[in-house]
């Protein structure tokens, strides 16, 4: 009878312990982030609380003592009922939404062309576009205003759309071009082998995967156009029929000579509410778009 010999199993050795990183090293970073968040959050919270307080309480006690008094919505009702604030809110939407839509549409097409198409002068166009990012907007206001006066575009929605489109396109093209340039080359080669045209490749390949980058550009430009005061004052003037919300808040400050705090806080929070809702609703796309467009 044969005896079966089995080789003994090797002894099981425990994996070497991985030294844990010292967590206290992250503590200063976390404390710094909390401090920065507090610096930005506390004034907004104070503005919100003050907008619901009566005028005499705002002038006598701090916003942190709001629990001792009463809260009211009269400030918002007074702001929306006086000073053409409702019209200004509608004007801000009429100015911002078309300007952002046109900027995203034209910017994405131009960015795709600079990133994925070969044509003469592409490098020169890219360099010129980057140079426009370093050009201060204030340097172009006077010559552009002269052109607008000659063309009769001042004080019109079409005119303000064109101004925001011209000032915002370089940034939109730059960010989207970086994103398109980082997409895998194999995807576009496969589309070309399937006989897809350049337009089809852009619409069915590039656009569906570039949602985060497009959302980032849209958020940036929405906040920029919505909060703009200088360009609105120069190219729209003081006409209340076309004045946006920022101009209405500025006029309210002048009308109250800085004394009607209850109205100013309510007006300021109304102006802040829309971009805050847009940002928090699209925050995850915003962060993903920035990370995707940060490099190739």
From TrEMBL:
Classify the protein's membrane topology as the record does.
Answer: Multi-pass membrane protein
Q: Which Pfam families does the annotation name?
A: BPD_transp_1
- List locations, semicolon-separated: Cell membrane
- Give residue ranges for domain ABC transmembrane type-1: 89-282
What's a GO cellular component annotated to this UniProt protein? Answer: plasma membrane
* Chain positions covered by the region annotation Disordered: 1-20
Q: InterPro entries from the entry?
A: MetI-like, MetI-like_sf
Record field: transmembrane: 31-52, 93-115, 127-148, 160-180, 201-223, 229-249, 261-282
**What are the alphabetically sorted keywords of the record?**
Cell membrane, Membrane, Transmembrane, Transmembrane helix, Transport
What biological-process GO terms show up in the record? transmembrane transport
Q: Which family does it belong to?
A: Belongs to the binding-protein-dependent transport system permease family.
Q: PANTHER family of this UniProt entry?
A: ABC TRANSPORTER PERMEASE PROTEIN MG189-RELATED-RELATED (PTHR43744), OSMOPROTECTIVE COMPOUNDS UPTAKE PERMEASE PROTEIN GGTD (PTHR43744:SF4)
Please state what the protein is called: Sugar ABC transporter permease
């Amino acid at each position: 009878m044969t005896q079966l010999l089995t080789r003994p199993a090797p002894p099981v050795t425990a994996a070497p312990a991985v030294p844990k990183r010292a967590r206290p090293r992250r503590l200063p970073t976390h404390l710094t982030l909390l401090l920065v968040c507090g610096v930005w959050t506390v004034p907004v919270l104070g503005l919100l609380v003050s907008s619901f307080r009566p005028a005499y309480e705002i002038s006598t006690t701090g916003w942190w003592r709001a629990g001792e008094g009463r809260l009211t919505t009269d400030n918002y009702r007074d702001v929306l009922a006086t000073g053409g604030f409702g019209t200004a809110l509608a004007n801000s939407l009429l100015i911002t939404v078309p300007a952002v839509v046109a900027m995203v549409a034209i910017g994405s097409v131009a960015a795709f062309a600079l990133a994925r198409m070969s044509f003469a002068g592409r490098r020169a166009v890219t360099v010129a576009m980057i140079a426009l990012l370093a050009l201060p907007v204030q340097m172009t206001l006077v010559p552009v205003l002269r052109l607008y006066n000659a063309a009769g575009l001042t004080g019109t929605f079409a005119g303000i759309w064109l101004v925001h489109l011209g000032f915002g396109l370089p940034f939109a093209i730059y960010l989207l071009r970086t994103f398109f340039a980082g997409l895998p080359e194999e995807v576009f080669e496969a589309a070309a082998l399937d006989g897809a045209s350049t337009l089809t490749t852009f619409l069915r390949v590039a656009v569906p995967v570039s949602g985060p980058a497009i959302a980032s550009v849209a958020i940036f430009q929405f906040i920029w156009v919505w909060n703009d005061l200088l360009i609105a004052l120069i190219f729209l003037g003081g006409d209340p029929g076309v004045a946006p919300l920022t101009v209405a808040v500025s006029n309210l400050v002048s009308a109250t000579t800085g004394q009607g705090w209850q109205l100013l806080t309510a007006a300021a929070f109304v102006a802040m509410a829309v971009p805050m809702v847009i940002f928090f609703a699209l925050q995850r796309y915003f962060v993903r778009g920035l990370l995707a467009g940060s490099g190739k």
